[in-house]
Write a structure and sequence with these properties.
The complex is a heterodimer of chains A (293) and B (434). By secondary structure, chain A is mainly α. Chain A contains twelve helices and two strands, in the order αααααββααααααα. Chain A is 76% helix and 3% strand. With 434 residues, chain B is α/β, with parallel strands linked by helices. The chains are: A mainly alpha (293), B alpha/beta (434).
Amino acid sequence: MAREIYQAITDGILVGGVYALMAVGLTLIFGVLDIINIAQGVMVILGAYLSYELAARLHIDLFVGLLVTVPAMFVIGVVIQWAFIRPLRGRERVSMTLLVSYAVALIIEGILYESFGANTRVLSAWYVTSSVHVFGFYLPYIYLFGFALAVVLVVALYLLLYRTRFGRSVRATMQDETAARLVGIDTNRVAALTFGIGVAVTAAGGMVYGATSGGFNPNSGYDLISRLLAIIILGGLGSIGGALAASVFMLTLEALVDIWQPQWAIVVFYAALVLVLLIRPAGFFGAARGRTA
Amino acid sequence: MRPHPPWRSRRALVLGTAVLSVGALAACSSSGSSSTSTTTSSSASSSPSSSNPITIGASLSLTGDFSTDGINYERGYELWASDVNAHGGLLGRQVVLKILNDNSSPTQVDTNYQTLFASDHVDLAFGPFSSLLTTPASSVAARYGYAFVEGAGGAPTVFQSPANLADHNVFDVSLPIADEMVPFVNWIASLPASQRPKTAAYPMADDPFATPPVQLAQQMLQKLGVKTVYSKIFPEEAADYKAPADQVAASGAQIVVLGSTDVPTVSAFMQAFEQQHYTPKLFIAAAGPDQGSAFISAVGKGNAVGMMVPNGWYPAYANSASQAMVQAYVAKYGGNASGVSSDIAEAYSVGQVMAQAVTATGGTDNAKIITYLRSGVTLTSVQGPVKFDSLGENGLAAAFVSQWQNGGNAFNQVLPVGQAGSVAIIATKPAWSS
């Protein structure tokens, strides 16, 4: 039994890294723009397809391919924000973004179906099926690399937010958009770039998800979105590090429950969310004080 | 680390509500079925007219979890319709298919068939894909008096549904799924005790299609003395299979009987097994390996070798109509014979059986068709003979087990041993070859 528990904890940490890669973009976008991006799951799948195209057609390594897919997804994100999100104004803006992002998800899904069909695709590389033997456990390289990538991205986003001029603009916009405008910050530009960055980092999540999920098709994103939303709430809305911590916590919890009752694993996943909302509404790393506008 | 950007807790609650709503919607779309009732009734009968086409309605999963199978079914239905129309149609009338997309949702499939019956007034109905969707769909068909000929609703829940028990309108042309692992178990039983595997694992998706055959196999193998070292049901909507797959690998089971519904589930287990340096001696999955090129492209030819799947049909099936259908499919859609999914044959068989019923009854009166199909008559299909019992199960359906062989280039019938068309089974799955 002890071995099973250790294995579950290991699985939870490793799979949690994958989910963190998919969730950090979502929490960043919500933090800055107040947007519940329902399209995040489909964005993950879009990232997976971009990696697939580079690997299948140009034989570019999955991780090297991120040098292409991340900028490409950044551009896609900026365009989506400019075309669909930015025009939304008024008191109903937040709720309207739910509908708009859902529409964006449907559009992207439709394009993917037209382009790739419904057949399952898988991302392949030597490190996807290979593993290293450590303390009696086989740790797959893809999960190790994915976890490392998650940590790197979290640190990079942290540095971007707290060590750069652009980051100060972002944080100012987060705290009070009106005041930020008054001091000369181009909040429209900040919003577009932040949305672009949020979508860009999702390219990494898509690549690792595509390599670890057993296969994906244009519809696969819908299974992800509710989990990703739960993770960013648990981590604290807008908290980049919180997304990583919550991913590891939730997936470890799920893996542990899976030992005894797999059918309850998902229930426990969401029960944990409800419990946290009751005890600590701001999540693990969320602060109680909020912005004023 | 510095304090994180501040947030309002109210936003967390709003978003929490959104998460739970999305989760609830997802749960509804994957497991529930609408209980909408209507008092509208239709006799679902029409008089033949040689000038009007025969319209056949169906709801298929062209998107969503079952989209790979749903699109194959669409191709199977269309291939049958084009063949029929090329030969003058049914009773001299051209066949027109009206196919709606249910997005793999049991709720949407209910709505779609109501649309087809109440608004479109289709002459005949073909079934959707999967037992999960056939159960609610067949209830709608019963309400409107339609004969519901289908090829992918073989779970006990379909035949035992209140609507079918009352109206007996469901007719499944394929193999009833509960028994589909029996040839595999019989083969294990035929092995000398010294060669018989000693342990088995049974991971199952929570799906009416996936669990019954695996649970029956487990009962039978246990009686043979094969020890169960893992038996758990995991949620069908699980987003990650690493944890259960790693548990199976840790069990070291010699046999893995996987209750799967699609290619990604099988692929995820195979990938996790390879990562854990674990190769079961025998690996059979309820669904997935039968998906032809879709399966091979997901797992690779080398890894596919030795993978088994129960089936009522396989591309090399020695049946002239089947061979003609395979050739027609390859000519129309490309690829090769071994890449033709069994979905195609199942869908095509639905059309064949309905065509024979229409011809025999001289029209599209669904009441007459139901009576005819329940009469015990033996019909033909590309999957072999069809004869329905009182609940609409095909009592003549043959149970095969097929296996990927020859470097992943051939999908052969291997069980039952000695049956016409069976080739030698690969009794020990080769190591993973990625």
